[in-house]
């Protein structure tokens, strides 16, 4: 993991949280849109909060795809779930909302999950163009799984 | 009956979210490490490679269907049930699907992470 890759993961987290909250803020300013007046949706884009929210969500999508190109799905998803924690902390400190004990417990669980996954390897799937040389050398299924478990065992220490 | 509809809606959302995420992950693995590709042959090669990967468009379709089914599910059931249930079940569903379809090595560490995050999201969004 390089510094640049950590930046991409941080981008996924921050862009998603910021984009969602801006979109939600803008849509609340606009009010509800009726199914019979869908042109309201097009006008919604003219709201600056909604426009910036959409740009941020595009940035989220680009960094999400970037992260998936070099890391496992089961690594990227938990690693970027800190966005939920970020939103709760923004609600607490910027919007002065109350956070119940259950929500604090939720924050602790998510942070624990992120800590667990971040300590391991980012990429484990086979059939990738960057397959490590030892995995291709070990054609035998038993040898292959031995190597894989040795690798993961090393990562778990 | 209404509860059945709500849970049916949640399961549909989870299904399409998982399908979209898995297809997108597979598409990006087919494209290869974007950092390296960009450094070697420039941004337009990266864009071209992504746009010529059919799995990418299938993934986008899956994600779009998931988004719209979430809107429908939200109109049937309570936000306080649908949003956290769908988000947290998606984390667990993705761990299963990534193990089966992407052959990721989901070891104990990753299972614990998936369940901790799923539980945390359910508490935080509930």
Would you give an account of this structure?
The complex is a heterodimer of chains A (157) and B (126). Helices cover 73% and strands 0% of the residues of chain A. With 157 residues, chain A is an all-alpha fold. The longest helix of chain A has 28 residues. Chain A is globular, with a radius of gyration of 21 Å. The two termini of chain A are 17 Å apart. Chain B has one domain. The longest helix of chain B is centred in the N-terminal third of the chain and has 30 residues. Chain B is globular. At the A-B interface, helix 3, helix 4, helix 5, helix 6 and helix 8 of A face helix 1, helix 5 and helix 6 of B.
Q: How are the SSEs ordered, and which strands pair?
A:
The complex is a heterodimer of chains A (157) and B (126).
Chain A: H1 3-30, H2 39-44, H3 48-70, H4 73-79, H5 82-93, H6 101-118, H7 133-137, H8 141-156
Helix pairs in contact in A: 1-3, 1-5, 4-6, 5-6
Chain B: H1 2-31, H2 34-41, H3 43-51, H4 54-76, H5 79-101, H6 108-125
Helix pairs in contact in B: 1-4, 1-5, 2-3, 4-5, 5-6
Tally of individual helices of chain A: 8
Radius of gyration of chain B: 17 Å
Supply the helix-strand structural class of chain A: mainly alpha
End-to-end gap of chain B: 22 Å
Shape descriptor of chain B: globular
Total domains of chain B, how many? Answer: 1
List segments of chain A where confidence is low: pLDDT < 50 over at least 5 consecutive residues.
128-157
Mean pLDDT over the full residue set of chain A: 78
Multimeric organization = heterodimer
Q: What is the radius of gyration of chain A? A: 21 Å
Quickly count the helices of chain B. 6
Strand percent estimate of chain A:
under 5%
Q: Indicate the mean pLDDT of chain B.
A: 91
Q: So what's the overall shape of chain A?
A: globular
SSE run of chain A: HHHHHHHH
Secondary structure: helix percent of chain B: over 70%
Major sheet characteristics of chain A = none
Largest interface: A-B, 46 and 40 residues
Q: What is the straight-line distance between the termini of chain A?
A: 17 Å
Helix content of chain A: over 70%
Largest sheet of chain B: none
């Amino acid at each position: 993991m390089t510094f640049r890759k950590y930046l991409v993961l941080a981008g996924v987290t921050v862009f998603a949280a910021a984009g969602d909250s801006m979109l939600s803020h803008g849509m609340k300013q606009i009010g509800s849109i009726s199914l019979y007046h869908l042109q309201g949706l097009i006008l919604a884009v003219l709201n600056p909060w909604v426009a910036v929210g959409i740009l941020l969500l595009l940035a989220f999508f680009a960094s999400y795809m970037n992260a998936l190109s070099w890391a496992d799905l089961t690594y990227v998803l938990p690693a970027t779930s800190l966005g939920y924690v970020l939103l709760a902390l923004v609600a607490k400190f910027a919007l002065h909302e109350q956070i119940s004990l259950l929500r604090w417990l939720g924050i602790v669980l998510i942070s624990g999950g992120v800590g667990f996954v971040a300590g391991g390897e980012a990429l484990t799937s086979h059939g990738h163009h960057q397959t490590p040389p030892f995995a291709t050398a070990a054609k035998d299924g038993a040898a292959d799984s031995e190597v894989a478990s040795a690798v993961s065992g090393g990562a778990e220490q | 009956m209404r509860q059945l509809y709500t849970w049916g809606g949640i399961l549909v959302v989870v299904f399409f979210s998982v399908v979209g995420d898995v297809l997108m992950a597979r598409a990006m693995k087919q494209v290869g490490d974007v950092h390296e590709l960009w450094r070697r042959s420039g941004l337009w090669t990266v864009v071209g490679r992504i746009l010529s990967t059919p799995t990418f468009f299938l993934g986008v379709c899956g994600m779009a269907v998931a988004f719209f089914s979430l809107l429908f599910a939200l109109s049937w059931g309570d936000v306080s049930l649908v949003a956290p249930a769908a988000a947290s079940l998606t984390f667990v569903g993705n761990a299963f699907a990534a193990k089966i379809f992407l052959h990721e090595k989901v070891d104990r560490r990753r299972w614990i992470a998936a369940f901790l995050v799923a539980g945390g999201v359910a508490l935080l969004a509930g």
